[in-house]
Amino acid sequence: MKQRLLHQIEADRDLLVGFLRAFVRSKSPNPPGDTTAAADFVRAHLKQRGVDFEEIAPRADCPNFIASFDTGRPGPHLVLNGHIDVFAVESEAGWTRDPWSGALEDGKIWGRGAADMKCGTTASIFTYLYMLRFRDALRGRLTLTVVSDEETFGPHGARWLMERYTERVLGDCCLNGEPSSPWTVRFGEKGPLWMKFRTHARGGHGAFVHMSENAVLKAMKIVDELLLLPQRFPTREPEELARALDEAKPDIDRGYGPGAAEVIRRLTVSIGRMQGGVKVNMIPAECEFEADIRVPNGVDFEAVRAEIETIAARHGAQCEVIIGSPPNWCGPFHPMMDHVRANAGMLRPGLVPARVVSPGATDARLWRLRGVPPWSMDRRRTAWAAATSTSAWTTSCTW
Fold it and tell me: What is the pTM of this model?
């Protein structure tokens, strides 16, 4: 059956490439988050293929889709997840090609979302379509979730489904096609903690610095303390996590750039925006800045947040959480990981993707934070060995 599937995928090459190119041309930048064009494209294709699905739109311009089938035979419930929104294009001036063209040149598809993540979402959609064709030979249940509102961690996409349709979308295992390079497959993520700070001072004439504090300088003192957080919160990883990341060090740097293997395992601080003052010869009365703190697995997320609030209070500043999501990971030696890695090696001989944690965050965290996969290692191996006696769960990973 796997060979039949691979033959069909190869026969559909032009269809798959054409789908992705048209998908890229369907603009869905977030912000502002209006995914209507891309959703219309997905909806039309699912209808054309005769797929039963439900559309759930907590916001009219932000729809989500769920499709699912049960084989009627005992087996695990696999969920495929992908999003249709993409990063915004601030300016087209720096692009070598139209970012919305979906151009096919030099053996590559060009455009915003071609990697993150309309390629992965295309793979999930067609995996579902192929598995639907083979359903009589499979066991268990397969669910496809195509969502909006991922790029800004918004509430109207996968979060909406997970909170209100939990039983339908949780499953026993989730595959998410976010780009992770050919050399890596992710089993966890660092936790993003985005904070906004505001400092205040009396202000005044720039020559009379003895009359008032400087709100910008107060903000800079807070930044200095934030940059010391990695020293205050050393990482203490569970043994299984540490083993996987130790084994993956060369591939992490290869996939994410030199130094990534070290960055993924420690707390990091990036100041993304700072604004204060109105004129060069005036003491700033207000300053606002935002910090992107990434908390690794092995560091107490809430303790970091509490320390940041303490730092802000010490300098008389206001602070608030823009986005906060704890670090997360699931078993790096789960059987599904073995399937994914084996299939990658089958498609490209010699390639064995390393088990890694992502420096960034994706919707996959929503499944991990709810305990998917939920079992202890021994019970998990036994259950999956029994439930995956057909190739249902390997063929779904051939992307």
Answer: 0.87
